[in-house]
Write a structure and sequence with these properties.
alpha/beta, 2-enoyl-CoA Hydratase, Chain A, domain 1, 2 domains, six-stranded mixed beta sheet, four-stranded mixed beta sheet, 45% helix
Length: 260
């Protein structure tokens, strides 16, 4: 599929999706959000893709925020629709994908950019990265899940301070807060993330998808994470991956998971 605002590349069972608007510091507009949805959907449906990496083009920015010019004149109703549609189409969609998603945060991840990174299953940052949710400086709040995912990752107090001050933190503080899992140099960022991806790909994709579902349930209203764990655990026993994994263990050989 041809895209205008993003790139999608498949290699060695990894699909790397790159936001490609360097002149705009990869800012998110509606066209980019729609293209990202399509690319993530295609990668998730591709049985050959075991891990998805999301990153930004260039050395300055992962995503420097949303394209404010698109919604500066919106009404109250239009603003609500913007958040609802964006969350459903992209941010919640990514968070609930069965394929693992790693955000490789290269440079600025602000506003919608940080919200995109937080929707991924975990994050690795380059040491030049800066992260923040500056929306209150524009008279609005984060609308793509930021008020929910940031406290889950860094705690309520730190999230309150970051959002209310509209401040930025650097990669080392993001690591200290637990917002990112690792920090590398910019040059090492993608190879480092690919190395983590290779470790993930040794394991059962069916079990990984089940684990994502169970973990997410613990953070969703109206769902009991423990009950979901029981359900997903039980389902695993009916899969070919479970049979392969247990037989490989018992026969002291490396498992070759069929992904079913």
């Amino acid at each position: 599929m041809d895209y205008t605002n993003i790139l999608s590349d498949f290699k060695d069972e990894i699909t790397t999706i790159t936001i490609n608007r360097p002149s705009k510091l990869n800012a998110l507009n509606s066209a980019t959000i729609n293209e990202l949805h399509d690319a993530f959907e295609a990668a998730n449906e591709d049985h050959n893709t075991k891990v998805i990496i999301i990153t930004g083009s260039g050395e300055k920015a992962f995503v420097a925020g949303a394209d404010i010019s698109e919604f500066a004149d919106f009404s109250q109703a239009e603003g609500g629709d913007l958040a609802a549609e964006g969350q459903e189409l992209l941010f919640d969609f990514i968070a609930n994908l069965g394929t693992p998603v790693i955000a490789a945060v290269n440079g600025f991840a602000l506003g919608g950019g940080l919200e995109l990174a937080m929707a991924a299953h975990f994050r690795v940052a380059s040491n030049n990265a800066k992260m923040g949710l500056p929306e209150v400086s524009l008279g609005v709040i984060p609308g793509y899940g930021g008020t929910q995912r940031l406290p889950q990752l860094v705690g309520k107090g730190r999230a309150m301070e970051l959002i209310m001050t509209a401040g930025m933190i650097d990669a080392s503080k993001a690591l200290l807060y637990g917002l990112v899992n690792h920090v590398t140099t910019l040059e090492e960022l993608i190879p480092f993330v690919e190395k983590i991806a290779s470790k993930i790909m040794r394991n059962s994709p069916v079990a990984i998808s089940a684990a994502i579902t169970a973990i997410n349930a613990g953070y969703q209203d109206g769902k009991n994470g423990y009950e979901m764990e029981i359900v997903e655990f039980g389902k695993c026993f009916g899969t070919e991956d479970f049979k392969e994994g247990t037989q490989a263990f018992l026969n002291k050989r490396k498992a070759v998971f069929p992904g079913r």
